[in-house]
Each structure stands twice: as C-alpha cells, then as structure tokens.
Design brief:
Length: about 260
C-alpha cells in the first residue's frame, strides 16, 4: 500500500554533508521530521545549523546532534532522546551515510605509510559495522516498526579495486553483507533493509580520494547520461522507495547511478 511520508520521522547518520544532507533536505520537503547525527568541527557545525533551520522552514521538526555516530555511548545517549522527540511514533526511515575511513594503501611504496590494523578496524567499524549496532538498538528500543525502511549507502567500490580504496572497499563489501543479514532477520517484523549503490558522486568524502578528478571524468564519460550522480538523485530514490508499508523490496543493492555500472 502506498502511503504518505508527511508526519513521519527519519534518522540520518551523517546528516551534515553529501548524500545524507541531500536526503534530509528532500524528506523535509516531503513533510518528514528529521533527526540528524553528524560529527563536525566548528565550521561543519555552523553549516549543519543552517541546514537544520532550512529544514524547519518546511514546517517540520529538525534536530541535529554533533556526536560520533560510531560510538556506543552516542547511541546510549541519543536513543532516549529520540524516543522523547518522536513521541511514540517511531522512526520510519533510517539512513546510514557515514563516510569516514583511511585511504592508505595496504602495502606502501618506499617511504610511504601502510595501513595499520587500527585504521582498518576503524574504517570497517564506522562505515559498516555501525549499521548493525544502530539497527539493533533502534529495534530493541521499539523505534523500528512494521513498514520502516533502513538504507545504507554503498558504492561500486565494494566489488572493485582502485589505489587507496582498499579499506573502504572492504567496508562497503561488509556493509552489503550486513544489509542482507539484517533484511533476513527483520523481514518477519515487516522492516525492509536495502543498500543504495550510488554512482560516482561529487561529495566531500569523494574529494578526499587521491585522483578523484580523474575518476569523476572517467565516470562522466562512461555514464549513459553523460553526467555524474548527484546527491539529489539518491535523495529522490529514498523518497520514492519509502512510500510503501511493504517490506517486499529488501536485502538488495539498488543501483542509483544512471546506468553507470552498465558500461
């Protein structure tokens, strides 16, 4: 059954930039109340505050929390706050859009640093494992109910290799595996879990990848639309896929790339 999103709640992990921010803006325009978690310095906090007020301009509630989304303490502190803010309505949409990890090579050239176990563990914990921990705690707290949707942001890098992307690629592969397992376990509760595989998208996290300009030019040339994926493309996909109470679309890696992977 197709339903309205207006008046529901969305939690965005990584809400202050890139795809997370675009999704929060799109859903706020649709009348969805926003809970945003981000981890920023002063400049980032100021931008998040501006975004929050813009969302409130659509007549919705928007609450942003500057905290480490990969921390168990953050979940422990914020879940009671979320229960209070949602007033028993629960959270209909959860977006996991955390992009923080090392870009060091596994085996560095002479004079170049190599990946350490601490950096590998941090990358997978933030970009993959935290999806499991948030979903566990939200479900246990009764905030995820029948009809809820959980989305994780992945990329073609989960199945491809490129310089400096090894740990992030491993995290994306693990993230997709977590999505499948969560989909299996939450299906009896009517909760859908999917990964959205965006194409190459200009975001702050992409800009940190060495050689990102060449990567963007290559993707633009290959894409049938002759342009890169935009954060707004992903935001529209979340809005579209969330307009049903059904959990029948679940456990998938859904391409949102304009056909980029086809070529």
């Amino acid at each position: 059954m197709i339903t309205r999103l207006e008046g529901s709640w969305c939690l965005v992990l990584g809400a202050s930039s890139g795809m997370g921010l675009a999704i929060a803006h799109e859903l706020a325009r649709e009348g969805v109340h926003i809970l945003g978690v981000h981890f920023d310095t002063t400049d980032g906090q100021e931008k998040a505050a501006v975004a929050r007020e813009e969302m409130r301009g659509h007549g919705v509630e928007a609450h942003f929390f500057n905290a480490n989304a990969a921390s168990a303490r953050t979940r422990e502190e914020l879940l009671p706050r979320f229960e209070e803010l949602t007033g028993g309505a629960g959270i209909r949409i959860v977006v996991h859009s955390l992009a923080f990890g090392t870009l060091l090579p596994y085996v560095g050239a002479a004079g170049e640093d190599s990946l350490t176990s601490r950096q590998m563990n941090m990358t997978l914990d933030v970009m993959a494992h935290s999806l499991v921990y948030w979903t566990q705690d939200l479900f246990t707290a009764g905030l995820l109910r029948q009809g809820a949707k959980v989305y994780a942001m992945t990329s073609a890098g989960g199945a491809r290799v490129m310089p400096h992307y090894g740990a992030v690629s491993a995290a994306k592969a693990a993230l997709e595996s977590h999505v499948r397992q969560l989909a299996l376990e939450l299906a009896p509760s009517g909760i859908a879990v999917n990964a959205l595989r965006a194409g190459v998208t200009p975001t702050p996290s992409m800009e940190r990848i060495p050689g990102s300009d060449r990567l963007a030019a290559h993707a633009r040339d290959l894409n049938p639309h002759r342009r890169l994926t935009r954060p707004e493309d992903v935001a529209e996909a979340v809005s579209l896929l969330s307009r049903t109470d059904s959990s029948w679309i679940t456990g998938n890696v859904i391409g949102v790339d304009g056909g980029e992977l086809l070529t």
